[in-house]
Amino acid sequence: MDGKVIVVTSGKGGVGKTTVTASIGAALALQGKRVAVVDMDIGLRNLDVVMGLENRIVFNVVDVVQKKCKLKQAAIKDRRIDNLFLIPASQSDDKSIIKPENMVWLCKKLRREYDFALLDCPAGIEQGFKNAIEAADEALVVCTPEVSSVRDADRVIGLLYAHSITPKLIVNRIVPKLVEKGDMLSHVDVVDVLSIDLVGLVEMDDAVVVSSNTGNPIVQQKDSKAGKAFNRIAMRLDGHPDLPVEDPMGHDSFWRKIGKKLGRKKQE
Amino acid sequence: MSFNALIRKLLNKPDNSRSVAKKRLQFALVYDKLEVKDDMLEDLQKDLVEVISRYFEIDRESLSLDIQRCEGSSALILNTPIVAAKHQKKNQEARAGA
Fold it and tell me: Measured between alpha carbons, how far is A36 from A3 in angstroms, rounded to an integer?
């Protein structure tokens, strides 16, 4: 059976697309799927360093598209996680080197070879974005609970709909304390404004910084809240769409704990 | 509602930055969607002049077309002085000619 190509996009830069791509890719592979993560940010590659694979690049996605090498030759195998592969971007070209028709061809190859291919889309809505969404089957839109990020997400969601893709939302870097204080948009606000399906809520987590410093997958760190959230997103993408989205709010709220003790239903 | 939010409500504290953010966001998105390119307005104006001229003699120079925005909604405003109404016959000729 053919695999799925999922593009991870956001419009705004710096909201965590690359981390989300790397983490969900790793989580899916840990669940036993054959996964490729593809860096579509030609000229500004970063997925390789986030995954700690920067020293092993030989070929890149532009070489594949230009048929200078086979897809398998460009795919770097992760040594820590079985069945996880990175196809890096080229650092010396620019986005216009890949054409939409190349993407149709590439995605067909990816579907044949892998169960999931996650495309890390560049920021912006220009050529690089257009390439990344061109032949994708599904889309994950990442945003943080900030006005600028949600606005850009809305724009990108519109463009995805126009391309006949129904995106799903990941709200990243939620700070429950700030939400509780009334100083950060809650995920309910964000979903209310964007009105698309939610696939995951990821709490702000220092461990993400550490894991990107060292190039280790956050999903393998058992006590990381963000890691757990990414694992759950991966499960939702892979056969468990109804797994409830966990609300990061009030993990250690005193009143909530009492509520739970008194048998109040756990919020989902 | 969290306990903190409840307390805030009871104390009748002013709007916090979260609700300000949400309102600003909602307005920004409405305005973004209403943004129209100038050449589209020009094209619309040409088309409207053509249609109106079938029924009225108008002063083309002083016709104005504008989008006005007030809170949460926006309106297309067309303003044109009418010189005279055209006769039905002329109308049909104009249509046949078009």
Answer: 10
H or E stretch covering A264: none
Domain that holds residue B63: 36-98
Is residue A88 within 8 A of residue A48, CB to CB? The reply is yes
Cα-based angle B3, B7, B10 (whole degrees, multiple of 5)? 135
Residue of B nearest to A148 (CA): B25
Size of interface A-B (CB pairs under 8 A): 52
pLDDT tens-digit readout, A156-189? 999 999 999 999 999 999 999 999 999 999 999 9
Quote the CA–CA distance of B13 and B19 in Å, as a whole number.
Answer: 12
The dihedrals phi and psi of B73, each to the nearest 5 degrees, come to -145, 170
- Gap between the Cα atoms of A136 and A118, Å rounded: 9
Per-residue pLDDT reduced to its tens digit, B34-87: 777 788 888 988 899 999 989 999 888 888 888 887 766 778 888 888 888 887
Length of chain A: 268
Would you call A182 and B29 a contact, using CB atoms and an 8 Å cutoff? no
pLDDT above 70: percentage of residues in chain A: 93
Residues of B in contact with A249 (CB under 8 A): 2
What domains sit in chain A, N to C, each tagged with a CATH number? 4-261 (3.40.50.300)
CB atoms within 10 A of CB A63: 19
- Residue A76 CA: distances (Å) to CA of A35, A86, A118: 11, 5, 14
pTM for this one?
Answer: 0.82
Contact flag B4-A181 (C-beta cutoff 8 Å)? yes
